[in-house]
Design a protein that fits this description.
Bound molecules: guanosine-5'-diphosphate
Strand order of the largest sheet: 3-2-1-4-6-5
Number of helices: 9
Order of helices and strands: HHEHHEHEHEHEEHEEEEEHEEEEE
Number of domains: 3
Shape: globular
Radius of gyration: 22 Å
Number of strands: 16
CATH superfamily of the largest domain: P-loop containing nucleotide triphosphate hydrolases
Structural class: alpha+beta
Distance between the termini: 59 Å
């Protein structure tokens, strides 16, 4: 019945079942007059933005709504899951727009990374998708690194327009916006102008200067992202909070390494059948387990949620949800990138099989490490 009530802040339908979804209010608040949702509440009282999850359809509608605005788009992706957090079809959804790409959470990538190669790979990725960007800003919202660069880029490219921040859930959009609020608005009450009149449904606007706003759009979780399949607790375990430590395995062609219970890397071939170094970059909380490939199928099914963790419990129909991909490195080392599960650097001329949940994206790139 509460579905009939709307948040007087953003206009979204209220509900009290899903704290992370749009329009959440605690049950105890539902009888009050002039109800505002949790997201608007936090914005009003704490000048703090919080992301909510919405359905694919709602998300597409909101993003598509940007087609008709003349604004500057800031798209935020997660450095640890660029593939997964990429918004596909952006051109198709909003047409050619002025776009700044923010790659957030750079602090979790290893310091040894070559930033130039990293950017080159991103540019290649953009070119393949026929996406033009005005700028790429590498940043760490949590540490505030890159914030000034982003502000300068926004000011330079804004050209008397509003700014729209988009991104999937968990890329750090709220953290970023909260930093922007701190630095651009200070502790002025950010909601005075945005709160009641003329708010766009499901968008929150933050004054940027006298005449312009930053609009925060809600995010989604795509089925090709690991987080789609995880409980809140497991999501915490797989999401890195600080710099990833590399873990090196010397592997021969009959060996596999499990990444928790989510993926298995099986070495098919190494030059001269030697043991060679395979470098794993996963959140330190994820257990990596070496095993002979031979009997590892049964081992997986038996030990997922136990020895092979996270996940902390089994995955339903695991056996039928797996898919295998094959990669051959040429003369350069490759990074194999698995959505939400970091990456593995494999030696030149090695061949591997990656088996993982079939909807996750698995890609390769020339290694971004020296
Ligand atoms: P949103 O869903 O896109 O709004 O993402 P949040 O801002 O809620 O952030 C999701 C998670 O990523 C939280 O646990 C944040 O603390 C974390 N996070 C955000 N920005 C960064 C960053 O720059 N570095 C790291 N290591 N974590 C971040």
């Amino acid at each position: 019945t509460i579905q009939t009530y709307k948040c007087i802040g953003c206009g979204t339908a209220l509900q009290s079942d899903h704290p992370d979804a749009a329009g959440y209010v605690p049950k105890s608040a539902i009888d009050k007059e002039d109800i505002i949702c949790k997201r608007c509440f936090r914005l009003k009282h704490y000048n703090e933005v919080q992301d909510v999850n919405i359905s694919d359809e709602q998300f597409e509608n909101i993003i598509r709504g940007l087609k008709d605005v003349n604004g500057l788009i800031v798209k935020v992706v997660d450095a640890y899951d660029i593939e997964g957090s990429w918004i596909e079809d952006l051109n198709h959804l909003i047409g050619r727009k002025d776009l700044i790409l923010v790659i957030n959470k750079m602090d979790i990538l290893p310091h040894a990374m070559n930033h130039t190669r990293f950017k080159q790979w991103v540019y290649k990725r953009l070119k393949e998708n026929k996406i033009k960007v005005l700028d790429i800003v590498l940043m760490s919202a949590i540490k505030g690194n890159g914030l000034t660069e982003l502000m300068e880029s926004i000011v330079k490219h804004q050209l008397d327009r509003d700014v729209y921040i988009i991104g999937t859930t968990n890329v750090g959009k709220s953290t970023l916006i909260n930093k922007l609020i701190e630095s651009s608005v200070g502790d002025k009450d950010v909601v005075t102008t945005s709160f009641f009149p003329g708010t766009t449904l499901d968008m929150i606007d933050i004054p940027l200067d006298e005449n312009h706003f930053i609009f925060d759009t809600p995010g989604i979780v795509y089925p090709h992202q690991l987080s789609y399949y995880l409980s809140r607790d497991d999501l915490k375990l797989v999401t890195p909070k600080k710099e990833i430590k590399q873990r090196i395995f010397q592997l021969s062609s009959d060996q596999s390494v499990f990444i928790g219970g989510f993926a298995r890397i099986s070495v098919e071939f190494t030059t001269d059948d030697e043991r060679l170094p395979f470098v794993f970059f996963q959140n330190n909380e994820i257990h990596l387990h070496r095993r002979k490939t031979e009997d590892s199928d049964a081992f997986w099914l038996e030990h997922i949620g136990g020895l092979l963790t996270p996940p902390t419990s089994s995955i339903e129909n695991l056996k039928d949800s797996l898919q295998t991909y094959r990669f051959n490195a040429g003369q350069e080392r490759l990074d194999i990138v698995i959505s939400g599960l970091g990456f593995i650097t494999i030696p030149a001329y090695a061949a591997i099989e990656v088996t993982t949940l079939n909807r996750l994206k698995v890609e390769s790139r020339i290694s971004i490490f020296e």
